[in-house]
Amino acid sequence: MPKLPLEGIRVLDITVVWAGPYCTQFLGDLGAEVIRIESLNTFVPLGRGPMAHPTEETLREMSPWTGGTPDRQPGARAWNRYPIFNAHARNKLGMTLDFLRPGGMDIFKRLLKISDVLVENNPTETMERLGISYQLLQGQNPSIIMLRMPAYGNDGAYQNHRAYGLHIEGVIGHTLQRGYADMDPSANTSVLMSDAAAGTQGAFAVMAALHHRKRTGRGQLIELSQAENTMSFLGQSVMDHSMNGRNAATLGNRHPYAVQGCYPCKGEDRWATITIFDDNDWTAFKQALGNPDWCREEKFSDSISRYHYHDDLDRHIGEWTQRFDSYEVMQLLQNVGIAAGPVMHQRDAYADPHLNQREFFEVVHQEDTGTHVYPGIAYKMSETPIKTRRGPVRLGEDNEYVYKTLLNCTDEEYSELESQGHIGMDYPEEIP
Amino acid sequence: MPDLALGDVKVLDLTNLVAGPYCTKLLADYGADVIKVEIPGLGDGARRLGPFPGDMPHREKSGLFLHLNTNKQSITLDLQTEAAGIVIRELIREADILVESFRPGTMAQLGMAYESLRSINPTLVMTSISNFGQTGPYRDYRLTDVMVYGMGGEMYSTGIAEREPVKLGVNVLLYQAGATASVATMGSLFAARDQGIGQHVDVSIMETQAGSIDRRMSTLIGFQYTGEITGRNPHGSGAGYPFGATPCSDGYFEVSAGRGYFPRAVSMLGSPAELDDSKWYAPGAQMDMELKQEFDTMLMIWSLERTKSEAWAIAQKSRVLSAPLNTMGDLAVDPEFNRRGAFVEIEHPVAGTLKYPARPFIMNDCPWSIRRPAPLLGEHNSEVLSRLGYPAEDVVRLRQQGVI
What we know:
The structure holds two protein chains of two kinds. Chain A contains 19 helices and twelve strands. Chain A has helices spanning 19-29, 56-61, 64-67, 83-86, 104-113, 124-130, 134-140, 165-171, 193-216, 226-231, 235-244, 279-288, 303-308, 310-321, 326-334, 346-351, 353-357, 399-406, 411-419, and strands at residues 10-13, 33-38, 93-96, 117-120, 145-148, 220-223, 259-264, 271-276, 339-342, 361-366, 370-375, 380-381. Chain A folds into two domains: 10-233 and 360-419, Rossmann fold, CATH 3.40.50; 259-351, formyl-coa transferase, domain 3. In chain A, α1 (19-29) packs across α9 (193-216). Chain B has two domains: 10-213 and 339-400, Rossmann fold (3-Layer(aba) Sandwich), CATH 3.40.50.10540; 243-327, formyl-coa transferase, domain 3 (2-Layer Sandwich), CATH 3.30.1540. Chain B is built from 16 helices and twelve strands. Chain B has helices spanning 19-29, 63-68, 82-94, 106-109, 114-120, 145-152, 172-195, 205-210, 216-226, 262-268, 289-304, 308-317, 328-332, 335-340, 381-387, 392-400, and strands at 10-14, 33-38, 72-76, 97-100, 125-130, 199-204, 243-248, 251-256, 321-324, 343-348, 352-357, 362-363. Chain B is elongated. The model of chain B has no long low-confidence stretch (mean pLDDT 96). Chains A and B meet through α1, α3, α4, α8 and α9 of A and α2, α6, α7, β6 and α8 of B.
């Protein structure tokens, strides 16, 4: 039985919110031993969730993807039950340690000595305040790899600027390139695309550095500015400005040269997207619709004219799509070779025949949450299949293993650390 | 010779357009030796997509292609021919990684099913990037960027309740698919080098969104826990204020300072007397639509007197989560991004010298570097074939036969 690719690599994880934890989840999926370090005495906003001790009433006000705990109940330990956290917490170990309390840094240094990688994504000044730097890490372990993932970089005027993904995307120009073309950006939803980009490429960066270390024996410091990291995804807009001085603006759901849109379907708030590229697509499309009269209108006869009369065409397409449900639109059009698909809400995804046949979802148990079906791994490997080996990690659930097995703490030391507020599985009641 | 992170890795690149080439760009930019195989006379489809200088199409001047193919070599091969098959097998024999983005089944039709390649190179990592993966009922369906978001990602809750769901900008999701493929590919490289295991990696672009942290995994789990669907909110609603974009003298400025962060927003506005009133801090104040309107008006009066970058600087002094909504032009002249090296000027023999996005991340011990610009179509035919031992006259013959 082959080992998982990163088995034997130990990663210390002091990440917060989304980008950092998503990075370490990739590493954990691939077999690294990821140890998530959290403090019992601080509840990071949007870290483990909106609140440590919510009431049923406050939970009800939260959106399903942030505060939607099972059956909207806080349970004994709400912080282990939030979807916003449990989406990036599989295949990790959890320990608690407070850097700010006496003894905290000593424990951290002992962990550094036996680890290969440390990942963090805090504001630069937060790390400075804690006294955690690459120099500190190297002092304990000369070949360690440190990945820092600040919003804008660890130096310069923006180094401590506060940002979530949506702000980073505003700064690098993505926000003005998405959303409705006929509305101002106040209608834009908060998206977190840059968190996905940072987490993914951060994992790639760590593996590139590990690969380099195998050859040279040297570790290194990697600095991933989430803003710079995501700029690459807007490459064609950067190049368009570079070549033509043009500022790319949103096209809404439209395509630069094909006919494309998001059209209403049968049912409440149901939609399908369709793209019609060329004359072949158009001919197939007309046939799929049964060649209605409007298709023969002069203005729809060629691809340039169709683009000019896009609004008119959209009205006709929308009248047709409303007769079918969104999956029927996909089948009717894909059967004749046209790109079309439903806008799948979450129930659709769970019921989707394709995702299910490919076994995308996994049944996972976690003690404080119960047994549920979770989204799984975003790729498939034939010889070292990647699976959810363990459900979303609970606060401090592996303290015994880390302190006693890895760090050889005696029972007395362990109890002392417990009484000092380093070790535990519960946030104090004072934390709201 | 600089010490490159992936300097000892050889990649054969049979990809096209965006997702596949972005995966191999990451490998190439951090040091891998990438040979890109293109269709003779035609090349990668991205060569025909813009932007082009002055909007004049030219296969060596596509901004998309130039960006996605830095540090790669290009050879042209008509894979339908036996002669090309021999060349490609030679290249597979020496490769660590093969990345392809054909429609599922095409590799097998070309005689390159993974199982048969394994007999040539037992530790080969083959990464296949496709719309919906190599299996399943949608396997042969077509896919566009908007569909990726609609079917895989979180389009359903993006936009406002009064309107249709709306996609993200340009083709960012295809880059995300390529980045995810690069992670799986690197993982497989570890198994190949450490354990001598070659394997086939199946990347479905749809699943790179279904498994994305950009809300999709959370909304799926939220549905699983509660049975509730996450949809779009009405325009201007949402939890707490200030939240969202507000106009400035030169564009827009975005803030998120509701609920617990409200005092920071007050400080940003200079703590005016009107905001001293206890009504702002009463329970439920953050959900009160009249108060929200009153506050948003004050904020707009404040922001309209400032540029977006002035507003950002002031907001950050009060630690308000915020951003200017920059254009690409704003970003291009931003002193910080330029000073840090977020852009790089690359000289290309046909397209000239242009400003490109630079490194996504900085590896301090083995830096990202541009060793060569994106290749001309078939630029490295002679070099690669002569390295494989083809005499010059056979290279000429292959060209005349239309193989290269």
